[in-house]
TrEMBL record:
It comes from Kibdelosporangium philippinense. Residues 9-142 form the UspA domain. It comes from the Bacteria. The lineage of its organism: Bacteria, Bacillati, Actinomycetota, Actinomycetes, Pseudonocardiales. SUPFAM superfamilies: Adenine nucleotide alpha hydrolases-like. This is Universal stress protein. Belongs to the universal stress protein A family. InterPro entries: Rossmann-like_a/b/a_fold, Universal_stress_UspA, UspA. Pfam families: Usp.
Amino acid sequence: MVEQNGSPPIVVGVDDSDAARRAFAWAIDEAVIRRCPVHAVTVWTVDPATDFIWTPSEQRRKIAEEKLSSTVRLAVQGRADVPTIVERAIEGRPAKALVEAAEDAAMLVVATHRGERLRKALLGSVSAACVRHSDVPVVVVRPEPQGT
């Protein structure tokens, strides 16, 4: 996964949450310092247990790609220095897909979300799974403190 300039990329998990946007901004800042690219990765899946309206997988992929492109555009807007950003929409389980996408990367950057205790208790935390299973360093960016 070594890029043209010889530096491995920073892989960052991106969704449309404020926490993920903050993690993406952190990854961009770090990539500027390191002079390396960023791979912005969004993970999508078809889950009949939680998806009450069936949507074809090709349409889900397209929606994920469009959301990712929009997030990338907003993240770089107004920045003087922007590293090379590669957008990737991957189908799969979020933690597994992110860990696999980050093989041979400089690091994996993920966000942790505030709340959602029931979901985390039932399904587990993506950021915690990435920390446990990744072979590269993982940076977990916390959400903005409430009230700021």
